[in-house]
Design brief:
The protein has eight helices and three strands; from the N terminus they run ααββααβαααα. It is mostly helical. Helix 2 (31-53) runs antiparallel to helix 3. The protein is flat and about 55 Å long.
């Protein structure tokens, strides 16, 4: 039904306006209002994804549905953390991406039907993959926030807004997110090797190879941090490089196949 994606976009837009209008205000945005409106948007977005994914023919894991699922997980996480964590500076990006993901879910509905009821172990692999990617994309947003804060500090610009959290706080949260993402990605790769017979088949091998390279990048980042220490610029570069590699692994071929070739 059109009503759920349309309503989700409307409430995401309201949340976006509430955040951006007072992003650098001395008191910051009204977190309770943002959380309440965003929670409604997330709920409506979830219903829209459910209706688009679970069909009478099977589970529709099209590119647009998967992108929307990832955005939903990220939006849900940020909305849940909103009252407690100082993550407001990247919230506009999260909600803007959610608006776009709902729009493409509505306007571009290619089908990629699967039957997970026949292979539940594959569903475990898919869920782990989505959770790993979402966690590491949230880490990428934190890395962008970290780069912005460091740039402000280098330019000796005063940071008085509560929307701008301390550098060390963001850096610590970044490593926690990367660690969680690496654990989930490790489980995703392990279940792929165990349950998928065609993981390195023609047309699919690039996904596994790029995912393994991304995993190695994140592990190298964590190893460097916990042994000799990792400079902020290097940590940002590691996180964003891993995010690009995972995005190419998860969506590169499917973008060409489903949206360009059709």
């Amino acid at each position: 039904m059109v009503i759920f994606p349309a309503a989700a976009m409307l409430f995401y837009c309201i949340a976006l306006v509430l955040v951006t209008s007072r992003l650098f205000h001395a008191d910051g945005p009204n977190r309770k209002a943002v959380t309440a409106v965003a929670a409604i948007a997330v709920a409506l977005h979830g219903i829209a994804i459910y209706q688009s994914t679970f069909t009478s023919h099977g589970q529709n894991f099209s590119l647009t549905n998967v992108i929307s699922m990832v955005n939903w997980i990220i939006a849900f996480s940020f909305t849940l953390m909103m009252p407690r964590l100082k993550v407001i500076i990247v919230a506009p990006v999260v909600y803007a991406c959610s608006i776009i993901s709902v729009a493409i879910l509505w306007l571009i509905p290619p089908k990629f039907i699967l039957h997970f009821e026949l292979h539940p172990e594959v569903l475990v692999h898919v869920i782990l993959s989505l959770m790993a990617y979402s966690a590491l994309m949230i880490a990428a947003l934190y890395a962008i926030q970290l780069a912005i804060i460091q740039n402000k500090l280098k330019k000796k610009q005063l940071i008085l807004s509560p929307a701008m959290p301390p550098l060390m706080t963001v850096e610590k949260q970044l490593y926690h997110l990367v660690l969680i993402g690496v654990i989930l990605l490790s489980l995703s790769l392990a279940t792929g090797f165990i349950f998928l017979d065609d993981m390195f088949a023609e047309g699919k091998g690039h996904k596994a190879i790029l995912s393994i390279i991304a995993w190695a990048v994140y592990v190298a980042m964590l190893w460097q941090q916990y042994t000799v220490g990792c400079r902020t610029k290097v940590a940002v570069a590691y996180t964003l490089s891993g995010g690009v590699l995972l995005t190419l692994a998860y969506f590169g071929a499917r973008i060409v196949k489903e949206l360009i070739i059709g």
